Amino acid sequence: MSSSPSYAGWEPGEHDADVPRESAGISAQAMWEKYIQKRKPAAFDGLLDDDTWHGERLADLDYLRQQAGQAQVKVEPINTTKQMFGTAEKREAMTFAQFLDVVQDKRQGGKYYLTTQYEQEEEQGEDDDWPDMDPILPSPVHLLQKDFPLHPRILGNLVLQQCNLWVGGTQEPKSSGLHHDFHDNLYLLLSGYKRFILFPPTAYPYLRLRGHVEHLHKNGLLVYEPDHRIRADGLDEIDAAHWRVASRSHQNGKKRRNHAQHDVHGSYEEAKQALQEMRAKYDPEEDEDDDEEDGDDEEDGEVLQDPESDNDAFEQDEDAYEQLFESDEPPSFSYIAPSVLHEHFRIPSPIPAPKDVDKTMIPLQGCPKPLVVDLKPGQMLYVPASWFHEVTSYGSHGSPHIAFNYWMHPPDGQDAKEPYVDTEVWNTIRNRVILHNHN
Predict the structure, then answer these.
(1) Do 93 and 206 share a domain, yes or no?
(2) For the segment 81-92, what is each residue's pLDDT rounded down to a tens digit?
């Protein structure tokens, strides 16, 4: 169990070096009890066993070009100074077919990486009553949806946030940089090789992050300044209130159309009033004291001081501290270079250190040892939200490395059937996800 007063999930013990290995045929209930609920990473031999899973197609470049070549994508160029991806390099727009041509070009294949298409416009509801949603099937995945299940059996009742295709042409190992995501991740390797270095969420004070952690929820979700309204399930409090209003408005309309005897209008009015009060509560002109008084209960998580401020070693590194406020890169990324991370923990590093790498920017004293996971084609890895990971990727025999992943909203409940505490809101979001993908 955790050494943190707020985090209730699993942490590696002193002698843990790898994650548990399971068969991909594990039941959804066992998956929940052994890993998802415990916030514990796990690797799986085999891919999905759903009837609609056709992973062999997603690893076929000719098939991808035929089915989705016309899709517009934005690809990430490698940072030529750091020789890694996962930086703030401006993405370049091209068609998916053009990108696949680049991947197969030996002179350019290692210079670009297809990652999540987060810069696309948000999906809109059928009317203005529904909150906006992130694109669930971004380009080029939206043209490949007959080749994978929208909700894998193994993930039970978790709600889908997004599916992504990851493609890189490098034959030499390249790194993603050390970072964490904000959703549970089921990562399926289709071709090439990946090595994951994993740290639990409680390692955040030691990893020299670009942002300032304000809150650590029980399920491990990390919240950064100034996003203090983020709940354990990843929803902004105002967005959650908006979903509740939309849900009750929709139900109210259905009752009236069906000439129901009882009226749910009062319930709708209550939700609408709560939304208005919450918006007033978080108005920028409100006193900062009011915001502090309205923070999360200690039972749901811990409001944290600046994690680095208590560490003398980091305070003395004034240049690094100042850089925290100057970077355009996400707050969940670390300043520690992959080659330095590998050397510090004596992990064999296939990545040469850049000439100007800062070898003094190492994990702070007390940092736990990471888990090291080697992933081969035909294997999966489950990584709970806010588990830090540095990923080294490379293709083989001239073929690219290709992966497919599911990001699921992080659960904050204790029941596999209802993995989210706010069942009203999450049942509504789940239904909207299904509706979006049938339109």
Answers:
(1) yes
(2) 776 777 778 889
